[in-house]
Structures are given as C-alpha cells and as structure tokens.
Amino acid sequence: MLFTLKQIQQFQSVFTFQQYLSFIGAQFDQNTIFYQTTLICSDNIPLKKFPIIKPSNFLYQKLFEKKKKEENKHTQFSNNENNFQNKKYFLGSQKLILSDEMETFYKLVGEQNIEFILQNFKILIKEDLNRETYIQIWGESIMKITLKIKSSNQEKIGRQQILYCNHMSRQVGFFKKNFITHAKKEIIMRNFIPKESITIDMISMKATSNIFDQYYFEEKFKSQEKQELRNLTQKLINNMQKFNFPQAFKIFVPLPSNYLNLKKEVYQSIRQKQYPTANLYDEIYKNYLTYNQVISILRNFLREIIPINLFGQQNLYTFLSDIQQFIIFLRFEDQNYSDYINRLNVFSIPWMNSYFSKKKQKILISKKRTQLLPIFRFLFQQIIIPFLRHNFYITERMKDDWKLFYYRKEIWNLTIKLSLNQLTSTNLKFISPEKITTQYIGKLRIVPKPGTFRPIVTYNRKSRISKLSLNKKLLDVKYVLRNLRSQQLGFSVFGNPQIFNRLEEFKKLWIKYQTPQTYFMSMDIHKCYDSIQLEYLLKFIEESNIIQSAYVINKYYLIIRNNRQLKISKQIRDLFNIYDRTCAIPINNSQCLQKGYIEYIQQNKLAIIVNLGIQTTITFSEFLLSIKELCQNNIVQFENRYFIQTLGIPQGLNISGILCSFYIANIEKNLTRKLLGDTLIMRLTDDYCCLTFDKQNLVTFQFEIRQIQKIILEKLKKCIASIQMMIKHNIIQIKRQSILNGLEKQQIQKNQLQNPYLLKRKIANFKIKQTSTYHKNLVLIFSNQN
C-alpha cells in the first residue's frame, strides 16, 4: 500500500509511523508491527519535526478539546458532496485512534509533533495483519470527489420516455395537452379572442414564441439567423396542425383484419367471467407492428412537417435515415443528441451563417453544432417522443432479449381488459381514492408472456410529504435483510458469485468421480410472490434468531486497487475503483461497529475503507412494523383506477426478493429425508436447479416437494397453493461437451454470433459466464472439463 500511494500525484508525503519516528529521532521498538503498517499521507505538506515535549494529558483529552473547537468551524455533515469535502473529521471509525498503540505513539512524538500530524495528515491503520485492508481513522477523505461536468454534446435523449404509456384516446395524433393547445389557451385567456376567431397562423406564432423562450434563449444566434429560424419553426408548427393523422395511420399502420373478432372474444370472455385461454393471449400478442411500419409512419410524419430549409435537403435525408435506430434499439439503450447532430454537414444548413475558414473550421463546426442542440431537443421532447407515446404502447416481452414491441393502442387495450379482469378475480380488489391512507402507491404494468402475462409493479413515485419513493424509504430495511445473504437460507443463492462458487465445487466432485453421468432438473414456484401468506412470513421473522434486536446503518466508501499498472503521476481514480456502500451492523457487534463496515475483501487486494460518519439506527420492532404496514396497505394504480393487493407481497420492491427467499427457506425446513449421494440444489428466489449423479435423488426430492405442498395446503386451507411447483424440464442426462438441449458448445457460440445484442456489446462467443441463467451456467461447468 505504501508503494502504491507514493505513485499517486496528489500525495506529496506518504510515510509509515516507523519512518516518521526515525525522522524526528524518537527512541522506539523497531519490531513493533503497528508502526510498520500504519500510514500517514498528505496532499501538499512535507514532513516536519519539532522538539519532543512529553505530553501533559492523554490523547483522548486532546482530541476532545480539538473536536469542541472545530464544532464552530464546520457545519453539520449532510449528504451534499461539497460538504463531505470540507468536513475534516469523521465520526465513523474515529474511535480506533483511541487505542493503546496510538497512546504510546503520542507519548513518543510529543505534543507539537502529534498536533502537526493531526492538522495536516491522514492516518490509515491496517485492519488485519493477514489482509491488505486499511481504514482511514483521521483527516480529510483520501478520496476527494471531483464531479465530472458532462458536455452538452453528450446529453441523453431519454429514450425510456416512450415506454409503457397506457393513455387511451379515440383519435390518433397527439395528447390533448401539448405545446400547440397550450399556446391556443394562452391566446384565449390573454387576448380575450373567441375560439372561432383563432387561426392556425396565430397559434403557430404564439407556440413559436414559447419555444424560443423555452429552448433557444440560451444560444447566441445572430439577428438574421434568429428571424429565419423563427419563420421555419412557425412553418413546422403549421404543418403539424395540417397533418392528416387518420389517413397516415390507415396507410402505414392499419389495424389487423381480425381486430373485431378479437374484440368480440375478449368482451365475451369478460362477460362470462372465464379465464382467457392461452391461445387468446397469444393471438393478441401476435398483432404487434413491425419496425419497418413504425419507422415508415414516423419518417412520413417528420418529412411532411419539417421544412427542408431547417436542415437542408441532404441533412434532412440523413436525419430521417438515422431515426430508425431510435425505434429498433433495445429496452435499456439510449442515444445522445450528438449522435444525430454530428452526422449533419453544418455548412449546408441554409439559415446558418455561411462564413467558412479552413483555419477556424473546427471552431466553426463546434459552434454550429452547439446551436443545433436546442433544435434537436425540441424535436425529440415535444414531437417525436409524444407522437410515439400517444399512438403506440411500447413494451418488452418475456424471453425476447429486451427487444421492444410496438402495439396499436386499440390492440393493447384488449390485453389490459383481459389481464385486469383476471387480476381482480384473484389478487386485486378495487378501492376508491377516498379510502387510500398511504402516501406510497405502486404503478402496475403488464408485460406480455407466452400464453399469459406478467404483472410488474414499480414504486418510483415520491411522497408529497417526505419527497422519497417507497424504495428509498425502505433502504434501512433492505440493508438489514442484506445481512441474511451471508446466512444459510435453505437452498437459496443470491446472484452469480454464489451460483458459480457452488457450481465450481460440484464440478470438482464431478472430476473427482471421473466425470460420471449427471442428471439435471429445474422447477419453478407458481405465482410465488402472490402465494406468500403474510401472517406466516411475520411469524417466521419473529421466531427467527437471524435478525438481531437493533442495527446501526453506516455509510462508507470502499476503495479497491484495480489491475492497472503503476505509473508515475497517477490519480487515485486511475489506480483504485471507488464504491459507495452502506451496511447494517448489529449493535452487539462492537468490533464491526468500530470498523464501520461488514465486507469480505480478497486478501490479495489492496483496499481502503473511508467511513462517512452518516449513521442511523433501526430496531427489530421498527423493522417488523415497516414490513407489516407495507404488506397490509399495498395500493397499486392501473390506468386511472386504484387497487389493494389482497394476497402475497409486492413484487417491485427492493426487499421483495430476499423476503421471498426467507419465506421459502423456512418452508424447506420441512424436508425430512436426506438426499443420498452428492446432490447440488440451488434456488434463485423461486427457481430451483437440481444436479446429481444419482437419478433416484431427483425423484426423491420431487416427492418431498409434493409432500410439503400437501402439508401447507392442509394448514392454510386456501385454494391457492403456497408452494405449487411447476416442473419445467424432465430429468435430463448431462453428457460431457453438451448442454441440456443437446447443443454442442460450438453450436451455442454460433447462435450467439447471430444475436445482435451480444455482438454489439462484444460479449459473444466466449462470454457465456456473464449470463445469469442456470442453463448457460451449466455450459461453463460441463462443456470444458479442464
């Protein structure tokens, strides 16, 4: 660590206590490990020595006096990053400086020297002699946060805005509340002009004026350029008002020929109060629009409304060609405005200044591109995105690699009616807005799934009082539950690291037994979240001894050395990866409370822990009350209606997954028979994976699961099974160099090379390990014996 910190440009002085004691000429034991491992470092202060004067008090008295003086100089610490940089002394882990070793060091160096160190240096102590982990116990943060100012050219469009709009209108076109109707209302209110007397030109002039105030006021246009741009914008708005939306939709994206039949079947299914068949769902899902259809109508719309002189003939053609990427990108992909601006020839835009100089070409191009930014921001935020949101429902589908599917709103409305009818008959109950007492309301959306649908609830809406979303409010509960991941919760695994560790152990046995025949079975818990009984969940938590009586929630920075080579004049961000972490420490764990963190760090990795001094507490009763109130008052909004969940726990919360694993782990305790031989069983939330060398073990495990299901049904006396297992695959023999479906590894890699999602991210061919599904994990383990 000493050698690494010396390579960082911002540190002028980095020494050990041993080197400092030798520098001032103090008499000490050279073999003391504490002096050899404790580091001091400073940004711009070199070492100095003062006469060694024997201290007249203890170190804790000196620090107490210093802390009292500093209270008037520093404001109370907050979450603001600038305050964090100005705050000099940390609350967390500061007690570690009050040790016997530090007291001895204080007596060796004397009053003036210790004063010099405390004022100008950071102190890092080694957390464990067997690990290269250090804790900063004094001084300004070793990590000075430097906020990177994003260039305006890298501004994101926010493509995710086009997704999941349930708004239904009788007419295609735009929302009733848009910048054109807003301008019309302003004319009526301010000028007292009757609606009949308002012309298209009057609306265009007012809308143009508003656009210039909102989008163009920051940019410096010359007077002639501004006038021409104003005329072109007014012409664009005129063209929008004249555009024939119904005719364009009939030509480019017509409703399917079987729409009326589908509508009739849906309404008949609802009237008869029958569950819709899988064929009906699949038939509706088939009627999505192709990318070419959506691109065609969008291009036609933009071609009709955008004046040629706004970009120029060739530039307009380039923009209309590039717009297809906005449609065909995957779920989480986004674009910058610069992706479109940089493709244009700025010197061929008619209304811009035609001045050209080879010497100043780069400067002129940069200036003109900056002028184009607010124009593209207006086009996307006020025209393109609202056009797609109003006329199409855009969503991903299960098991389709995050591809987006575009549905006409009329078609999607059939899906909404079917799914809502099914949900209200099982798990949701209508509630009037007047009876809602909670501030946190989830938003429900439907994701298509073969033969059915998957309800997704998100809790991103902020409370009007606390200004926090429900997920933010439950963060302390989440940190407490996160500690359960280190416990043995039945067959639970949490994430790829645990999955691969267990698979690697099983692979060693496989090789040890000379690669015997291996059998695999996977199972799924049907409607897992909806089937959880709240009374039993709370009972399991109360009776469990895993959760302690109280926790301290501590925030800290974890700074871990990366694999970059050491070079002179490096920044700390170049040599270390910095993570913002929060942990829940049991209040009876005094050792972890002093350190301020609970985390396993590899022994061969250099790491620094910097506590932020932000600590809160949560008791077991508060923890239990939060879960109880949440599950009993789970309100979700679907379109304009509100529902209360009658069964199960919410799915979209940050604590739902671990609560579900905890619940099922307690049910798994009922497994009375031990499986013979070497068998690996893993469960990721509600998905089971079983691997064994003996086929009979899988049969035994399946029988035990069936027995548990019968016991639970008898106890609960519910018509909904709490752990209804759905067997996905039969018992399949795994051979060397093959996967479940019999594909060779080379064939799997060939299929990956045909996947544009994997190709674009350069993870095709040999990056199978990055996927999280059991099937592909098994390829890694069993396809290569070595």
Automatic annotation (TrEMBL):
<keyword id="KW-0460">Magnesium</keyword>
<keyword id="KW-0548">Nucleotidyltransferase</keyword>
<protein>
    <recommendedName>
        <fullName>Telomerase reverse transcriptase</fullName>
        <ecNumber>2.7.7.49</ecNumber>
    </recommendedName>
</protein>
<comment type="function">
    <text>Telomerase is a ribonucleoprotein enzyme essential for the replication of chromosome termini in most eukaryotes. It elongates telomeres. It is a reverse transcriptase that adds simple sequence repeats to chromosome ends by copying a template sequence within the RNA component of the enzyme.</text>
</comment>
<dbReference type="InterPro" id="IPR003545">
    <property type="entry name" value="Telomerase_RT"/>
</dbReference>
<dbReference type="GO" id="GO:0007004">
    <property type="term" value="P:telomere maintenance via telomerase"/>
</dbReference>
<keyword id="KW-0479">Metal-binding</keyword>
<keyword id="KW-0808">Transferase</keyword>
<keyword id="KW-0158">Chromosome</keyword>
<dbReference type="Pfam" id="PF12009">
    <property type="entry name" value="Telomerase_RBD"/>
</dbReference>
<comment type="similarity">
    <text>Belongs to the reverse transcriptase family. Telomerase subfamily.</text>
</comment>
<dbReference type="InterPro" id="IPR021891">
    <property type="entry name" value="Telomerase_RBD"/>
</dbReference>
<dbReference type="InterPro" id="IPR000477">
    <property type="entry name" value="RT_dom"/>
</dbReference>
<keyword id="KW-0779">Telomere</keyword>
<dbReference type="GO" id="GO:0046872">
    <property type="term" value="F:metal ion binding"/>
</dbReference>
<dbReference type="GO" id="GO:0003720">
    <property type="term" value="F:telomerase activity"/>
</dbReference>
<dbReference type="GO" id="GO:0042162">
    <property type="term" value="F:telomeric DNA binding"/>
</dbReference>
<dbReference type="GO" id="GO:0000781">
    <property type="term" value="C:chromosome, telomeric region"/>
</dbReference>
<dbReference type="GO" id="GO:0000333">
    <property type="term" value="C:telomerase catalytic core complex"/>
</dbReference>
<keyword id="KW-0695">RNA-directed DNA polymerase</keyword>
<keyword id="KW-0539">Nucleus</keyword>
<feature type="domain" description="Reverse transcriptase">
    <location>
        <begin position="428"/>
        <end position="745"/>
    </location>
</feature>
<dbReference type="GO" id="GO:0070034">
    <property type="term" value="F:telomerase RNA binding"/>
</dbReference>
